[in-house]
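Ticket closed. Logging final result for Sphingosine-1-phosphate phosphatase 2.
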Amino acid sequence: AYVQKYVVKNYFYYYLFQFSAALGQEVFYITFLPFTHWNIDPYLSRRLIIIWVLVMYIGQVAKDILKWPRPSSPPVVKLEKRLIAEYGMPSTHAMAATAIAFTLLISTVDRYQYPFVLGLVMAVVFSTLVCLSRLYTGMHTVLDVLGGVLITALLIVLTYPAWTFIDCLDSASPLFPVCVIVVPFFLCYNYPVSDYYSPTRADTTTILAAGAGVTIGFWINHFFQLVSKPTESLPVIQNIPPLTTYMLVLGLTKFAVGIVLILLVRQLVQNLSLQVLYSWFKVVTRNKEARRRLEIEVPYKFVTYTSVGICATTFVPMLHRFLGLP
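Final structure:
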Protein backbone atom coordinates (compact mmCIF):
# COMPACT_ATOMS: atom_id res chain seq x y z
CA ALA A 1 0.00 0.00 0.00
CA TYR A 2 2.95 2.34 0.60
CA VAL A 3 4.80 1.64 -2.65
CA GLN A 4 2.80 2.26 -5.79
CA LYS A 5 3.97 2.56 -9.33
CA TYR A 6 2.23 4.97 -11.64
CA VAL A 7 2.73 6.60 -15.03
CA VAL A 8 2.34 10.36 -15.42
CA LYS A 9 0.39 11.01 -18.62
CA ASN A 10 -0.09 14.76 -18.24
CA TYR A 11 2.84 16.57 -16.66
CA PHE A 12 1.03 19.91 -16.66
CA TYR A 13 -1.67 18.62 -14.32
CA TYR A 14 0.87 16.61 -12.35
CA TYR A 15 3.10 19.59 -11.51
CA LEU A 16 0.16 21.99 -11.19
CA PHE A 17 -1.52 19.90 -8.52
CA GLN A 18 1.72 18.93 -6.80
CA PHE A 19 2.44 22.64 -6.46
CA SER A 20 -1.15 23.31 -5.39
CA ALA A 21 -0.91 20.59 -2.75
CA ALA A 22 2.20 22.29 -1.36
CA LEU A 23 0.13 25.46 -0.87
CA GLY A 24 -1.83 23.59 1.79
CA GLN A 25 1.16 22.03 3.52
CA GLU A 26 3.42 23.07 6.38
CA VAL A 27 6.14 24.40 4.06
CA PHE A 28 3.76 27.11 2.79
CA TYR A 29 2.50 28.22 6.18
CA ILE A 30 5.95 28.41 7.79
CA THR A 31 7.02 30.71 4.96
CA PHE A 32 3.90 32.71 4.04
CA LEU A 33 2.72 33.56 7.57
CA PRO A 34 6.12 34.80 8.88
CA PHE A 35 6.72 36.68 5.62
CA THR A 36 3.36 38.41 6.07
CA HIS A 37 4.27 39.39 9.63
CA TRP A 38 7.77 40.68 8.89
CA ASN A 39 7.16 42.40 5.57
CA ILE A 40 3.50 43.17 5.01
CA ASP A 41 1.27 43.70 8.05
CA PRO A 42 1.50 42.22 11.58
CA TYR A 43 -2.20 42.99 12.00
CA LEU A 44 -3.07 40.66 9.13
CA SER A 45 -0.67 37.93 10.24
CA ARG A 46 -2.23 37.86 13.71
CA ARG A 47 -5.71 37.32 12.31
CA LEU A 48 -4.53 34.75 9.78
CA ILE A 49 -2.63 32.72 12.36
CA ILE A 50 -5.37 32.64 14.98
CA ILE A 51 -8.09 31.68 12.47
CA TRP A 52 -5.73 29.12 10.89
CA VAL A 53 -5.04 27.54 14.32
CA LEU A 54 -8.75 27.37 15.18
CA VAL A 55 -9.72 25.84 11.85
CA MET A 56 -6.88 23.31 11.86
CA TYR A 57 -7.56 22.15 15.42
CA ILE A 58 -11.24 21.53 14.71
CA GLY A 59 -10.39 19.77 11.47
CA GLN A 60 -7.74 17.52 13.01
CA VAL A 61 -9.95 16.56 15.95
CA ALA A 62 -12.90 15.90 13.63
CA LYS A 63 -10.75 13.45 11.66
CA ASP A 64 -9.95 11.33 14.71
CA ILE A 65 -13.52 11.45 15.99
CA LEU A 66 -15.24 10.58 12.71
CA LYS A 67 -12.51 8.12 11.63
CA TRP A 68 -13.58 8.08 8.00
CA PRO A 69 -10.94 6.30 5.91
CA ARG A 70 -9.13 7.88 3.01
CA PRO A 71 -9.99 6.72 -0.54
CA SER A 72 -9.21 3.06 -1.21
CA SER A 73 -6.00 2.35 -3.08
CA PRO A 74 -6.51 0.87 -5.63
CA PRO A 75 -8.35 2.29 -7.51
CA VAL A 76 -6.76 5.64 -6.59
CA VAL A 77 -3.01 6.20 -6.48
CA LYS A 78 -1.87 8.08 -3.39
CA LEU A 79 0.96 10.46 -4.23
CA GLU A 80 1.66 11.51 -0.63
CA LYS A 81 3.02 8.93 1.78
CA ARG A 82 3.39 10.79 5.08
CA LEU A 83 -0.33 11.44 5.58
CA ILE A 84 -1.58 7.97 4.62
CA ALA A 85 -1.99 7.00 8.28
CA GLU A 86 -4.41 9.87 8.92
CA TYR A 87 -8.16 9.69 8.43
CA GLY A 88 -9.82 11.56 5.60
CA MET A 89 -12.88 13.53 6.72
CA PRO A 90 -12.65 16.53 6.63
CA SER A 91 -9.79 17.64 4.39
CA THR A 92 -7.65 19.95 6.55
CA HIS A 93 -5.79 21.10 3.43
CA ALA A 94 -9.09 22.37 2.05
CA MET A 95 -9.98 23.90 5.41
CA ALA A 96 -6.66 25.71 5.82
CA ALA A 97 -6.58 27.00 2.24
CA THR A 98 -10.15 28.29 2.46
CA ALA A 99 -9.53 29.88 5.86
CA ILE A 100 -6.32 31.63 4.80
CA ALA A 101 -7.68 32.86 1.46
CA PHE A 102 -10.98 34.26 2.71
CA THR A 103 -9.70 35.58 6.04
CA LEU A 104 -7.08 37.50 4.07
CA LEU A 105 -9.77 38.79 1.70
CA ILE A 106 -12.17 39.85 4.46
CA SER A 107 -9.42 41.48 6.51
CA THR A 108 -7.96 43.50 3.65
CA VAL A 109 -11.02 44.61 1.70
CA ASP A 110 -11.57 47.60 4.05
CA ARG A 111 -7.90 48.06 4.84
CA TYR A 112 -6.20 48.32 1.45
CA GLN A 113 -7.33 49.80 -1.83
CA TYR A 114 -7.66 47.12 -4.50
CA PRO A 115 -10.46 45.77 -6.70
CA PHE A 116 -12.66 43.50 -4.58
CA VAL A 117 -13.45 41.28 -7.57
CA LEU A 118 -9.74 40.66 -8.12
CA GLY A 119 -9.27 39.68 -4.48
CA LEU A 120 -12.31 37.41 -4.60
CA VAL A 121 -11.09 35.68 -7.76
CA MET A 122 -7.63 35.13 -6.23
CA ALA A 123 -9.15 33.68 -3.04
CA VAL A 124 -11.41 31.33 -5.02
CA VAL A 125 -8.58 30.23 -7.34
CA PHE A 126 -6.18 29.60 -4.45
CA SER A 127 -8.63 27.54 -2.40
CA THR A 128 -9.94 25.70 -5.48
CA LEU A 129 -6.46 24.65 -6.60
CA VAL A 130 -5.66 23.26 -3.15
CA CYS A 131 -9.01 21.44 -2.99
CA LEU A 132 -8.57 19.89 -6.46
CA SER A 133 -5.03 18.83 -5.57
CA ARG A 134 -6.41 16.66 -2.76
CA LEU A 135 -8.50 14.76 -5.31
CA TYR A 136 -5.67 14.50 -7.84
CA THR A 137 -3.18 13.18 -5.29
CA GLY A 138 -5.69 10.54 -4.16
CA MET A 139 -5.72 11.71 -0.54
CA HIS A 140 -9.39 12.72 -0.26
CA THR A 141 -12.83 12.13 -1.69
CA VAL A 142 -15.05 14.91 -2.99
CA LEU A 143 -17.08 14.62 0.22
CA ASP A 144 -13.94 15.13 2.35
CA VAL A 145 -13.09 18.30 0.45
CA LEU A 146 -16.62 19.71 0.46
CA GLY A 147 -16.91 18.93 4.16
CA GLY A 148 -13.71 20.84 4.88
CA VAL A 149 -14.81 23.88 2.87
CA LEU A 150 -18.27 23.99 4.46
CA ILE A 151 -16.92 23.60 8.00
CA THR A 152 -14.48 26.44 7.39
CA ALA A 153 -17.18 28.68 5.92
CA LEU A 154 -19.33 28.04 8.99
CA LEU A 155 -16.43 28.80 11.35
CA ILE A 156 -15.64 32.06 9.56
CA VAL A 157 -19.28 33.15 9.80
CA LEU A 158 -19.51 32.23 13.50
CA THR A 159 -16.20 33.78 14.53
CA TYR A 160 -16.31 36.94 12.40
CA PRO A 161 -18.06 39.03 15.09
CA ALA A 162 -15.14 38.25 17.43
CA TRP A 163 -12.37 39.24 15.02
CA THR A 164 -12.12 42.73 16.50
CA PHE A 165 -11.62 41.09 19.89
CA ILE A 166 -8.70 39.14 18.41
CA ASP A 167 -7.10 42.46 17.50
CA CYS A 168 -7.08 43.46 21.19
CA LEU A 169 -5.55 40.29 22.62
CA ASP A 170 -2.13 41.88 22.96
CA SER A 171 -3.51 44.33 25.53
CA ALA A 172 -4.96 41.62 27.78
CA SER A 173 -4.12 41.22 31.46
CA PRO A 174 -0.84 39.69 32.73
CA LEU A 175 -2.72 36.44 33.36
CA PHE A 176 -3.49 36.10 29.66
CA PRO A 177 -0.22 34.29 28.71
CA VAL A 178 -0.92 31.66 31.37
CA CYS A 179 -4.28 30.86 29.77
CA VAL A 180 -2.69 30.83 26.31
CA ILE A 181 -0.22 28.17 27.49
CA VAL A 182 -2.47 26.04 29.70
CA VAL A 183 -5.55 25.74 27.45
CA PRO A 184 -3.78 24.65 24.23
CA PHE A 185 -1.49 22.28 26.14
CA PHE A 186 -4.52 20.70 27.82
CA LEU A 187 -6.22 20.28 24.44
CA CYS A 188 -3.10 18.65 22.97
CA TYR A 189 -2.55 16.32 25.91
CA ASN A 190 -6.19 15.20 25.81
CA TYR A 191 -6.30 14.77 22.05
CA PRO A 192 -8.68 11.97 20.89
CA VAL A 193 -7.00 8.57 21.08
CA SER A 194 -6.51 6.90 17.70
CA ASP A 195 -6.61 3.17 16.97
CA TYR A 196 -3.03 3.38 15.73
CA TYR A 197 -0.30 5.98 15.62
CA SER A 198 -0.65 8.77 13.10
CA PRO A 199 1.06 12.17 12.86
CA THR A 200 -2.25 13.95 13.54
CA ARG A 201 -1.61 14.56 17.27
CA ALA A 202 1.92 15.78 16.63
CA ASP A 203 0.78 18.10 13.84
CA THR A 204 -2.04 19.45 15.99
CA THR A 205 0.36 20.12 18.86
CA THR A 206 2.71 21.92 16.49
CA ILE A 207 -0.12 24.14 15.20
CA LEU A 208 -1.59 24.99 18.61
CA ALA A 209 1.86 25.62 20.09
CA ALA A 210 2.84 27.94 17.24
CA GLY A 211 -0.42 29.83 17.67
CA ALA A 212 0.15 30.10 21.42
CA GLY A 213 3.69 31.34 20.87
CA VAL A 214 2.60 33.97 18.35
CA THR A 215 -0.18 35.19 20.66
CA ILE A 216 2.22 35.44 23.60
CA GLY A 217 4.73 37.21 21.37
CA PHE A 218 2.19 39.91 20.51
CA TRP A 219 1.35 40.26 24.20
CA ILE A 220 5.04 40.61 25.12
CA ASN A 221 5.53 43.26 22.45
CA HIS A 222 2.62 45.29 23.80
CA PHE A 223 3.27 44.77 27.51
CA PHE A 224 6.97 45.62 27.38
CA GLN A 225 6.56 48.10 24.49
CA LEU A 226 9.24 46.32 22.47
CA VAL A 227 7.87 47.34 19.09
CA SER A 228 5.75 50.14 17.80
CA LYS A 229 2.04 49.49 17.91
CA PRO A 230 0.66 47.94 14.70
CA THR A 231 -1.55 50.02 12.48
CA GLU A 232 -5.03 50.45 13.90
CA SER A 233 -7.66 47.94 12.91
CA LEU A 234 -10.53 48.56 10.55
CA PRO A 235 -11.47 50.83 8.97
CA VAL A 236 -8.11 52.08 7.67
CA ILE A 237 -7.67 52.45 3.92
CA GLN A 238 -4.10 52.17 2.68
CA ASN A 239 -2.67 52.10 -0.79
CA ILE A 240 -0.72 48.98 -1.67
CA PRO A 241 2.83 50.23 -2.37
CA PRO A 242 4.37 49.30 -5.72
CA LEU A 243 6.82 46.42 -5.68
CA THR A 244 10.29 47.84 -6.28
CA THR A 245 13.65 46.10 -6.45
CA TYR A 246 14.59 47.66 -3.11
CA MET A 247 11.42 46.39 -1.42
CA LEU A 248 11.91 42.92 -2.89
CA VAL A 249 15.53 42.67 -1.74
CA LEU A 250 14.66 44.08 1.69
CA GLY A 251 11.76 41.67 2.12
CA LEU A 252 13.82 38.64 1.11
CA THR A 253 16.67 39.73 3.41
CA LYS A 254 14.35 40.14 6.40
CA PHE A 255 12.75 36.79 5.58
CA ALA A 256 16.13 35.00 5.32
CA VAL A 257 17.35 36.50 8.61
CA GLY A 258 14.11 35.55 10.35
CA ILE A 259 14.03 32.00 9.04
CA VAL A 260 17.65 31.37 10.07
CA LEU A 261 16.96 32.55 13.62
CA ILE A 262 13.75 30.50 13.81
CA LEU A 263 15.52 27.35 12.63
CA LEU A 264 18.29 27.86 15.18
CA VAL A 265 15.78 28.35 18.00
CA ARG A 266 13.73 25.37 16.86
CA GLN A 267 16.74 23.05 16.79
CA LEU A 268 18.12 24.27 20.12
CA VAL A 269 14.83 24.07 22.02
CA GLN A 270 13.88 20.73 20.46
CA ASN A 271 17.18 19.10 21.42
CA LEU A 272 17.10 20.56 24.91
CA SER A 273 13.50 19.58 25.60
CA LEU A 274 14.03 16.04 24.31
CA GLN A 275 17.11 15.61 26.48
CA VAL A 276 15.19 16.76 29.55
CA LEU A 277 12.21 14.50 28.78
CA TYR A 278 14.40 11.48 27.99
CA SER A 279 16.21 11.95 31.29
CA TRP A 280 12.99 12.48 33.24
CA PHE A 281 11.28 9.37 31.85
CA LYS A 282 14.53 7.35 31.70
CA VAL A 283 14.32 6.73 27.98
CA VAL A 284 17.28 5.76 25.83
CA THR A 285 18.53 8.78 23.88
CA ARG A 286 17.75 8.82 20.15
CA ASN A 287 14.95 6.33 20.57
CA LYS A 288 12.68 7.46 17.74
CA GLU A 289 9.79 5.34 18.97
CA ALA A 290 9.92 7.09 22.34
CA ARG A 291 9.17 10.39 20.63
CA ARG A 292 5.71 9.04 19.83
CA ARG A 293 4.81 8.51 23.47
CA LEU A 294 2.18 10.97 24.68
CA GLU A 295 4.21 12.19 27.65
CA ILE A 296 7.17 12.99 25.39
CA GLU A 297 5.69 13.95 22.04
CA VAL A 298 3.25 16.58 23.27
CA PRO A 299 5.57 18.43 25.71
CA TYR A 300 8.57 18.59 23.38
CA LYS A 301 6.49 19.66 20.39
CA PHE A 302 4.62 22.22 22.45
CA VAL A 303 7.71 23.77 24.03
CA THR A 304 9.57 23.81 20.72
CA TYR A 305 6.91 25.50 18.62
CA THR A 306 5.74 27.88 21.34
CA SER A 307 9.35 29.09 21.40
CA VAL A 308 9.30 29.37 17.60
CA GLY A 309 6.12 31.48 17.72
CA ILE A 310 7.55 33.83 20.36
CA CYS A 311 10.79 34.11 18.42
CA ALA A 312 9.00 34.94 15.16
CA THR A 313 6.90 37.75 16.64
CA THR A 314 9.29 39.20 19.23
CA PHE A 315 12.96 38.40 18.70
CA VAL A 316 13.06 38.40 14.90
CA PRO A 317 11.65 41.98 14.63
CA MET A 318 14.15 43.05 17.32
CA LEU A 319 16.97 41.49 15.27
CA HIS A 320 15.69 43.28 12.15
CA ARG A 321 15.90 46.62 13.95
CA PHE A 322 19.35 45.79 15.32
CA LEU A 323 20.58 45.06 11.80
CA GLY A 324 19.00 48.23 10.46
CA LEU A 325 16.34 46.46 8.39
CA PRO A 326 13.23 48.71 8.43
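The beta strands are 112-113, 238-239. No further action required.
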